[in-house]
Amino acid sequence: EVHLVESGGGSVQPGGSLNLSCAASGFTFSSADMVWVRQDADKILKWVSTIKSEGRSKFYAAPVKGRFTISRDNTKNILYLQMTDLKTEDTAVYYCATDVLGSNRGPGTQVTVSP
Fold first, then answer.
1. How many CB atoms lie within 10 A of CB 35?
2. Would the pLDDT of 88 be above 90?
3. What is d(CA 113, CA 16) in angstroms, rounded to the nearest whole number?
């Protein structure tokens, strides 16, 4: 059974940084493409970033490109999202998932960006 647990969220001011982590278990993490999605006040799940299983191919949504960096450690079964230059519009619950629809996502971690 896929089990994902996100952590690292918090409250920061605009321009600040946060590093999210996602601990994965119950499946062969090293063979899985992994995704970060987020859900803001409109309750719509939005794709943020994807990393291919080998860790080299990475893709980003336009609003976060150049500010967020996705990475993974296949030896530790952990997915990361480094977020810099945060903006108020980045405020959301962030989830790791196994596809862009948010399948198998964990409980999420809240990121709040406010002055």
1. 25
2. yes
3. 8
